[in-house]
Design goal:
- By secondary structure, the chain is an alpha/beta fold.
- It has two domains: 95 residues, Sandwich (eubacterium ventriosum atcc fold); 103 residues, no CATH class.
- 50% of the residues lie in helices and 20% in strands.
- Strands 4-1-7 form a three-stranded mixed β-sheet. Strands 2-8-6 form a three-stranded mixed β-sheet. Strands 3-5 form a two-stranded antiparallel ribbon.
- The longest helix has 29 residues.
Length: 214
């Protein structure tokens, strides 16, 4: 067989199916569409140790691309395989969480309150550390020759500028995104997710977890 099978697996794939196939775990492309259609239905793994509980994530497993090659060659021994994705990848199986609108709304409210009061405290603590009020008062007196009453054009513009800076930094105002660029929170979450996936893969490689099970 002279065809080449191109495969691409992302570092992390989530599934709601307890039995995952090659077609669901990654992407495959070949000049012979019959080869792809056959391999897409080939079973990659069945999650047995499913954790029962309230948590959505039930189980995860690290795979090596060599396991994919082995399963493909069982069906098409002479097929050449080109890997365009990850050498090792993770598949996470989870049950579909039950929708609980009231609980979700409560969680959102709690997170919003924590972010609001936490940010307000941090800003006030910073202003207190650098004596922002005293500095504004001295600057106002220096420029106008009058004593500051604590609420002048300086405090007003500082507050407006601080609000505008926060909106520009987080790239959101209400439910609208200001630009197509990812927000700092999204960037940090992706970096964190990538670090977690890399750690899981490295740990599995060190312990030999994704080697062929006996």
């Amino acid at each position: 067989m002279s065809e080449i099978l191109y495969v691409k697996f992302e570092k992390n794939t989530k599934t709601y199916n307890q039995t995952i196939t090659l077609g669901e775990a990654g992407e495959m492309q070949c000049a012979d569409s019959a080869v792809v259609n056959r391999l897409k239905t080939e079973k990659l793994h069945t999650f047995q140790n499913v954790k029962k509980g309230k948590h959505a994530c039930a189980d995860r497993k690290v795979f090596s691309i060599m396991e994919v090659v082995e399963k493909v060659h069982k069906v098409y021994p002479a097929l050449e395989i080109q890997n365009l994705g990850e050498q090792d990848f993770i598949v996470e199986y989870s049950t579909k969480p039950k929708e609980q609108p009231a609980l979700t709304a409560l969680k959102i409210a709690v997170v919003c309150l924590i972010c609001f009061f936490g940010s307000a405290f941090s800003i006030m603590a910073f202003n207190n550390d650098v004596s922002t009020v005293d500095m504004f008062g001295q600057f106002y007196t220096l420029m106008t020759g009058q004593e500051s009453d604590g609420f002048t054009i300086l405090e007003l513009t500082y507050s407006l500028g601080l609000s505008a800076g926060i909106i520009a930094f987080f790239n959101h105002i209400g439910g609208r995104r200001l630009s197509k660029e990812p927000t700092p929170i999204e960037v940090e979450m992706r970096l964190y997710e990538d670090d977690v996936n890399t750690t899981l893969i490295n740990t599995a490689s060190r312990n030999g977890i994704h080697k062929k099970e006996q």
